[in-house]
Specification:
Lipocalin, globular, 3 helices, mainly beta, about 300 residues
Length: about 300
């Protein structure tokens, strides 16, 4: 039976509460270039930035009640604020706030068993470019490490049908800029993998003894959505938002003590410029951001 007073349940979000800091953040985004039009010439500018970040999660003390007649959902809400600065110039490049919500606490006012939530976690995000998003998903907890999969920051092969051979050369140029000579190994080493940003998260995990991982995956296509101001809709419409969090408990090799690490990979689809093939729709450009943070 639902009660008038209760302690909020945060589910997998509990471990996020606190302040996280990281200096290993990277952003890959393609935007319309000067001289281009939304439905005409496919000119773009690729921007790759290394950033530092402070990400703060604060629990809402009481459960938020959603009343549904005989059913009641008690949401465990966690406020978050994200502030990102360019690592070199220290300029503020992103501010975001919103809520993470645990949706799995549903009770019945009758003797009937309450149904399970279709999605157990949700995130609402407000971004000052003029975007707001609702993404939903679920989580899994596993002893040990959960592998971070590859991700592509390139438009899909289908979207690139008929494109000039050198159309995506900017990605190659940025990769050369972010590749250095490894004198010891006599090889070249990528400071950042421009076309597979998740490789940096994978490298950050090399050699770590991970005791436990909570993986959360959220997607605007899970009955969520994105709303944008008219300028964004016309020039570079954000149409899908996917996010993965990996919350890890890591054991230090010498002392045996543990610390908490948080990794994320986000992918926002931006649509602008007609496809070269003449097929309907616009080219979908992935905007990928990744970072590895530790709890303070």
């Amino acid at each position: 039976m639902a009660t008038q007073e209760k302690t909020p349940s945060f589910g997998p979000l509990e471990g996020l509460i606190g302040t996280w800091v990281g200096v290993k953040g990277w952003s890959v985004i393609s935007v319309p270039a000067p001289g281009s039009t939304p439905d005409g010439t496919a000119a773009f500018k690729l921007i790759v930035q290394n950033y530092s970040e402070t990400l703060t999660f604060k629990a809402v003390d009481d459960p938020v009640r959603n009343r549904g007649g005989a059913l009641e959902q008690n949401i465990g809400a966690v406020e978050y604020e994200q502030r990102i600065h360019d690592l070199d110039t220290k300029a503020l490049i992103h501010v975001e706030n919103g809520m993470l919500m645990y949706l799995g606490d549903i009770e019945s006012e009758t003797d009937d068993e309450a149904p399970a939530a279709k999605f157990s976690i949700a995130r609402s995000a407000t971004i000052p470019h003029g975007d707001s998003a609702m993404i939903l998903g679920d989580s899994v907890v596993k002893e040990g490490k959960i592998a971070v999969p590859d991700i592509s920051s390139l438009p899909s092969t289908l979207d690139m049908v008929g494109a000039p051979v050198d159309f995506l050369d900017q990605y190659d140029k940025e990769q050369k800029r972010l590749t250095v000579d490894d004198i010891v190994m006599k090889t070249k080493s990528k400071i950042f993998n421009v076309t597979n940003p998740n490789e940096n998260l994978q490298r950050d995990n090399n050699g770590l003894e991970v005791l436990k991982t909570t993986h959360m995956h959220l997607d605007s296509e899970n009955e969520g959505g994105i709303n944008n101001v008219p300028f964004i809709v016309r020039h570079a419409n954000a149409t899908r938002f996917q996010c993965d969090f990996w919350l890890q408990t890591i054991k230090l090799p010498m002392s045996g003590q543990t610390f908490e690490q948080l990794q994320y990979s986000q992918n926002v689809a931006l649509e602008f410029h007609k496809k070269f093939s003449g097929e309907p729709g616009l080219i979908r450009w992935p905007h990928v951001t990744v970072n590895t943070l530790t709890k303070q």
